[in-house]
Design goal:
By secondary structure, this protein is an alpha/beta fold. It folds into 2 domains: about 120 residues, Leucine Dehydrogenase, chain A, domain 1 (Rossmann fold, 3-Layer(aba) Sandwich), CATH 3.40.50; about 200 residues, NAD(P)-binding Rossmann-like Domain (Rossmann fold, 3-Layer(aba) Sandwich), CATH 3.40.50.720. It has 14 helices and 11 strands. The strands form 2 sheets. A 6-stranded parallel beta sheet has the order 8-7-6-9-10-11, sandwiched between helices. Helix 5 crosses helix 6 and helix 5 packs across helix 10. The chain binds nicotinamide-adenine-dinucleotide.
Length: about 375
């Protein structure tokens, strides 16, 4: 990435902050993509990036994704993300995370962070010793705890909206659902599906995990490489990203793809088109898996589980809106989702031209100017 400013302009980023402290071995990048709707919120990822360029590219891509996810979920939050370059198995120390926390604090609330790949609740607690701009902490500390429960619930609700769109009924009773991954999100999703009487087909590269879920939900075990071709009504990717690609899409035997994994389409334009050609409805990942973000966002106003679940139920209506736009404008569902998110950002961005008194930055500057 030779020209960083060009990269920022290309994706409309507001701010990128490089944080360094040699003594504790900290090398971190915080990217604030868009704060039209509110402070940027996003996890801090710790990963062994092979180059600084890779780290920067990742944080720019992920922070932009957060803007869209928060916008579509109806949250008053913008998009941000941070990456710490390092080995999460070996390089974690209290000093590193507390130093990083102080850098987060310097942004004065423009960026609020939570856990992500390679970071966990303990790390957040260290960060929280230095800044209050942290969310996603344990229930013991007044937080919302593990967000996967709500992510799983949101995927279940979103699946119902998909079923309604394709089969005319949102009942999942008797529906065959092939679930890729038997981790946290998948397990919570399967709980709801099993309760409603769906027939589950489950895989995981950790066979033990898959077998445990199969036993628990009276499901059928599928080998990881066979999950795409499993005869099912719905395919639920709940493992890693990039799994909708040239190889997997031709194998699919389902009518709907609806799951919790992030970045499911390997190449967005190409692979959504391949799904459409095969008449498979795709639930845009960042819309259907927004439950986790809804959960961590709730902490900012004082965690309330009942309100969180009500908000997550709203994923049903969000998907309905996406499908309506897709139908009316004859665009792929992924494009419809982006349009819906952008529409909210633009329309709410406009309300800020109304002068609302002391919260307005201009008024504040005038006050300061008058005092000096
Ligand atoms: P997890 O680590 O608990 O579970 C993922 C599971 O997928 C693991 O058991 C792993 O062995 C399995 N897996 C990996 N590759 C596989 C493959 N090729 N085939 C079959 N199984 C495979 O993670 P999670 O928290 O359940 O998250 C699952 C996905 O959902 C991720 O893409 C994550 O980014 C996304 N997501 C999670 C949340 C959340 O609240 N946890 C929120 C939004 C999105």
């Amino acid at each position: 990435m030779t020209n960083t400013f060009e990269e920022l302009e290309r994706r409309d980023h507001e701010q990128v902050v490089f944080c360094s402290d040699k003594k504790v071995g900290l090398r971190a990048v915080i990217a604030v993509h868009n704060t039209t709707l509110g402070p940027s919120l996003g996890g801090t990822r710790m990963w062994m990036y092979t180059s600084e360029e890779d780290a920067l590219r990742d944080v720019l891509r992920l922070s932009r994704g957060m803007t869209y996810k928060a916008a579509i979920a109806g949250l008053n939050l913008g998009g941000g993300k941070a990456v710490i370059i390092g080995n999460p198995e070996k390089d974690k120390t209290e000093g590193l995370f507390r130093t990083y926390g102080r850098f987060v604090d310097t942004l004065g609330g423009r960026f609020i962070t939570s856990a992500d790949v390679g970071t966990e609740v303990r790390d957040l607690e260290w960060i929280r010793m230095e800044t209050r701009h942290v969310t996603g902490v344990s229930r013991l500390l007044g937080g919302g705890g593990d967000p996967s429960t709500v992510t799983g619930f949101g995927v279940y609700v979103g699946m119902k909206a998909c079923a309604h769109e394709v089969f005319g009924s949102d009942s999942l009773k008797g529906m065959k659902v092939a679930v890729q991954g038997a981790g946290k999100v998948a397990t919570y999703l399967c709980e709801h599906l099993a309760k409603e009487g769906a027939k589950l087909f489950i895989t995981d590269i950790q066979e033990k995990r898959a077998r445990a879920a199969v036993k628990r939900f009276s499901a059928t075990y599928i080998k990881p490489e066979k999950i795409f071709e499993t005869q099912a009504d719905i395919f639920a990717p709940c493992a890693l990203g990039g799994i909708l690609n040239d190889e997997s899409i031709p194998k699919l035997k389902c009518r709907i793809v609806a799951g919790g994994a992030n970045n499911q389409l390997l190449e967005e334009k190409k692979h959504i088109q391949m799904l459409m050609d095969r008449k498979i409805l795709y639930a845009p990942d960042y819309a259907i898996n927004a439950g986790g973000l809804i959960n961590v966002a709730s902490e900012l106003e004082g965690y309330n589980e009942e309100r969180v679940l009500k908000q997550a139920e709203g994923i049903y209506g969000i998907l309905q809106q996406i499908f309506q736009i897709a139908r009316e404008e004859k665009v792929p569902t992924s494009v419809a989702a982006n349009k819906l998110a952008e529409y909210r950002i633009q329309s709410l961005g406009r309300i800020k031209h109304i002068y609302s008194g002391k919260s307005n930055g201009v008024a504040h500057h005038n006050e300061v100017a008058n005092k000096t």
